[in-house]
Predict the structure of ABC-type polar-amino-acid transporter.
Amino acid sequence: MAEPLVVIKDVQKHYGDFHALKDIDLTVDKGEVVVVIGPSGSGKSTLCRTINRLETITSGTITIDGKELPKEGKALANLRAEVGMVFQSFNLFSHLTILENVTLGPIRVRGMKKADAEKEARALLDRVGVGQQASKLPAQLSGGQQQRVAIARALAMHPKVMLFDEPTSALDPEMINEVLDVMVGLAREGMTMIVVTHEMGFARKAANRVVFMADGQIVEQATPEEFFTNPRSDRAKDFLSKLITQ
Ligand SMILES: Nc1ncnc2c1ncn2[C@@H]1O[C@H](COP(=O)(O)OP(=O)(O)O)[C@@H](O)[C@H]1O
Ligand SMILES: [Mg+2]
């Protein structure tokens, strides 16, 4: 039985006069991997940012595991901790070591003891293949390594769902797969994931569903196989033809 984890209902988002998200309805079940794809400016990042309330919504509702997103305060901090987010730019703290970057949230937000947080952080860093780098600063790591640290940092909070916003688009080509491999591993272990990416290989390997957005709307949804071989809308056909010839 499918258990809904993230439920987005009739969400509208305006930036001033600009209607950035229009009538968004999307349900992501526990363990499901949803890839969000679409042209630049279609609202993909805005959608991710509303799900962990980095952005407010104009109307509609977003619930995570049955709870509506709180407006502010400690309840919001707690709920945000349930939503792991990985951005295009890794956003690691440059003055903290890799280990400190991963333990900061668990110690500050979850109130973990330092020794326990470090033990878990080391295990997570091993899991994403950067265990040897724990005492270095972010600038001493490659982009692919830094992005894997960013994934470990998000996992350290024990999120119920992970959001990835174009996690490989700032990376040199030879580093893309090392990050995608970690993400495929997470998907196989049953993590619920919403992933904005144009990496069709990842979508085919790991996604249960592709959601195509254009102009702030969800235009179509399908399995990766259906979507890539037989897109229904003209917008999707046009988008895919450009993506393939890149
Ligand atoms: N803070 C903001 N203020 C005003 N407009 C914004 C803001 N953030 C995004 N937008 C606009 O909303 C639209 C969707 O942006 P975004 O969600 O970043 O798209 P995508 O991630 O699909 O490229 C774009 O037209 C963008 O210019
Ligand atoms: Mg974006």
Notes: Residues 44-45, 165-166 surround magnesium ion (ligand 2) (CB under 6 Å).
